[in-house]
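Risk mitigation, structural track. In case the binding assays with adenosine-5'-triphosphate fail to produce interpretable data, a predicted complex structure has been prepared as a fallback.
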Amino acid sequence: MPTAIRLVKLEKRFRTKYAVKEVNLTVNKGELFCFLGPNGSGKTTTIKMMTGLLEPTAGFVELVGMDIAKKPIEVKKKMAYVPDQPLIYPKLTGREYLEFIASVFEVEDELFEQRMNHYTELFSLKGRLDEYAGDYSHGMKQKLSLCAALIHKPEILFLDEPTVGLDPKSAKILKSLLRQLCDDGMTVFMSTHILEIAEQMCDRVGIIKDGQLITVASMDELKKERGNDSTLEDIFLDLTGDAESQLLVSSMKEEEV
Ligand SMILES: Nc1ncnc2c1ncn2[C@@H]1O[C@H](COP(=O)(O)OP(=O)(O)OP(=O)(O)O)[C@@H](O)[C@H]1O
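Fallback model:
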C-alpha cells in the first residue's frame, strides 16, 4: 500500500516548551486515520505542521512522497485542510466562495459544477448558496468549508474536529462520506474528541499525550492487546488519564447505573 503521509522525528517547540516531540508516523493511501489526545496534547500543532501552516522546529513532513517544506505548492495542490474554526470570506456568497476555491485549484468548470451540486446537496446547502457566507450559522459555515475542501478532489484531507457544530444528520452524512472517499482512495487524517467516531469508522487511531505519540493501532489490535470488552474510552483513559480522572469517570459510570 503506497504511503500518503510520513512524519519523521517531527517536533515543535514554543519557547522552551515542546508542543510536539519526536513524532514518527506513516499513514497509507486510502486510510481513515483518527488522531486522539487530551486537550493541549499537540493535535492541532501536528496538523498545522502537516499542512504547512506551522514550521517544525525539527523533523519533516512528507505528503504523497514530497517534503512539504521543499515543495509547498505542489503538495498543497494535493491536500485540503478543514480547521476546527471554519475560515470563510463573509462578503462572498456560498457559491462565490466555492467558485473562488475552485479557481485557485484550477478545477474545470464542468467538474466544479458536478462537485458543487453533489456536495452542497448532500449537506443541504444547495438552496442557500446565493446568501452571504458571513450570514450562515456555524454549522453551515463548517459544511461550506467541507464542500470547499472537496471541490478539487484532494488526495489527502485533514480535518480538525470535523463534527463539532454539525447536527446529527450532517455528522452521519459526513461519516459515511469520509468512509466512501477513503474506499475510493482518498486519505483522511482527522482529529476528534468523539471516541465513538474513532471507534466506529477509523482504520487506525493514533493517541498523542504531552506531544508524544504513545500508541498507533487499529481497534482490533487495541482490543486484542487490552481485552475484547475494552471500549476505546477505557483504552484512551487508561493510556492518557491520570489515576484521579479515571476514578472520577468510574464513579460517574456507577452513578448512571
Ligand atoms: N502559538 C503558540 N504559542 C505557544 N504555545 C502554543 C502555541 N500553540 C499551541 N501551544 C501550546 O502547545 C500545546 C499543544 O497545543 P495544541 O493546540 O496542539 O493542542 P490540541 O491537542 O490540539 O488541544 P485541544 O484538544 O485542546 O484543541 C499546548 O500546551 C498549547 O498551549
